[in-house]
């Protein structure tokens, strides 16, 4: 796997990364990538120095990566191992460290390359797992991180995507971590009695039932107390079992009571969908089948995933038992047509011009669909 | 027998809007593209031969539901490369005759294209306004 050892380049591939863009929410990946490499450097060191009980003082800090730029093409952050830091902190080990970093990077490439081979990778250490749980956690379906300049066993560039990541993390384990964004209903809140402790809120979600989210006590007191039954919007890192059932909340990135106007918009949309659910066979002058439950559920999921768009939607039935959600956004007239099976398609036309957005179809209201919607609207919450 | 397309680009063609395609004063684009049963032919009534109110009365008199009548001109259909043809309907035991009936021919468009066209024509119709609203 020939690679440039001076710089490590990660190419982010996917619609979100077109035009040289790197969304801020994937930046933690870069630190996680460094941690993953470091976890292997430590293992290599320990293997080479079996008589030493501890790592040299300053060992971990000596392996510093700097973000030196984002190269052209898709978003390609370039990370450079900072040799000066190593020279300063561990002058006696600098050359050895350089070799170890190279070897560790090879280990990472091998690990990812063999993700699809159930017998091809040694068990991961807890340190490896911790880094992997963060590296690529924001990847959506059909997005991947390519290790620029690498070559895998199939002759192609080595890459990490959602499925490979899940397979790696869950090998030998029964859970993995992933990002989860949605809305739910505030069921209650708790303030710890001890002075410094955090509080928590309980939120009922459509996807995973009731979740308990740790929240600082002052926020519980100032923002959530007195808002029982209010809608809250959140972005979390959660741990799921191999079969995608919920296990735990790992981290709360963001949680807020939704603005009253948005709640009102959501209620209007939900009421409309429920009302359309009363349509009977032949509702459209002899044609038209009733709205199918899968279509309604998908529409509710879409509302939950991007509540701030709710105020823009006008919702109509389709003859096939689906729903058409139409909205205008910055000079474009869009339609999200949800089929009777819950599969959405999005298309649009420019209002004051000839522009067209050709239909893009998806299997579900998935992260991939939401990424497409976000790209058109700039709304990510 | 070959039927010539309508050639007066100013002629407005009436389209009925089902109540389910209306929400808070907004109209779905669905009535402006044919459904599967239409087989590429979007039914309209010609303003050269009837009025918006008469079109509404005939439609609802045949037992169908309509909230109101809007219109798209022959020229606006033409701008979307959709020719319009006269298609008078004779009376049957259950339906009144409709000599003003015509259709916009979507047979040259894909389903996806017709949905985008439907949006543009809906917006044209909204610009023109409601042509008949029952009191």
The residue-averaged pLDDT of chain A reads 85
Largest sheet of chain A: 5 strands, antiparallel
Strand content of chain B: 15-25%
Q: Helix count of chain A, per DSSP?
A: 10
> What are the secondary-structure elements of chain B, in order, as H or E?
EEEEHEHEEH
Total strand segments of chain B: 7
Structural class by sheet pairing and helices of chain B: alpha+beta
Radius of gyration of chain B: 14 Å
- Provide the structure class of chain A: alpha+beta
Q: What would you report as the Rg of chain A, rounded to the nearest angstrom?
A: 24 Å
Secondary-structure element order of chain A, as H and E? EHHEEHHHEEHEEEHEEHHEEEEEH
Which band does the percent of strand residues of chain A land in?
Answer: 25-35%
Arrangement of strands in the largest sheet of chain B: 5-1-4-7-6
Q: How far is the N terminus from the C terminus of chain A? A: 40 Å
What can you see in these coordinates?
The complex is a heterodimer of chains A (381) and B (135). Chain A is of the alpha+beta class. Chain A has 3 domains: 7-173, no CATH class; 178-257, Nucleic acid-binding proteins (OB fold (Dihydrolipoamide Acetyltransferase, E2P)); 260-377, Nuclear Transport Factor 2, Chain: A (Roll), CATH 3.10.450. Chain A is 31% helix and 29% strand. In chain A, the strands form 3 sheets. Chain A has a 5-stranded antiparallel β-sheet with strand order 2-3-1-4-5. In chain A, helix 1 crosses helix 4, helix 1 (28-48) runs antiparallel to helix 5 (126-134) and helix 8 runs antiparallel to helix 9 (293-305). With 135 residues, chain B is α+β, with helices and mostly antiparallel strands. The longest helix of chain B has 18 residues, at 111-128. The model of chain B has no long low-confidence stretch (mean pLDDT 95). Chain B is built from 3 helices and 7 strands; from the N terminus they run ββββαβαββα. Chain B has one domain (12-128). Chain B is globular. In chain B, the strands form 2 sheets. Chain B has a 5-stranded antiparallel β-sheet. Chain B has helices spanning 52-61, 74-79, 111-128, and strands spanning 12-17, 22-23, 26-27, 41-46, 68-73, 84-86, 101-105.
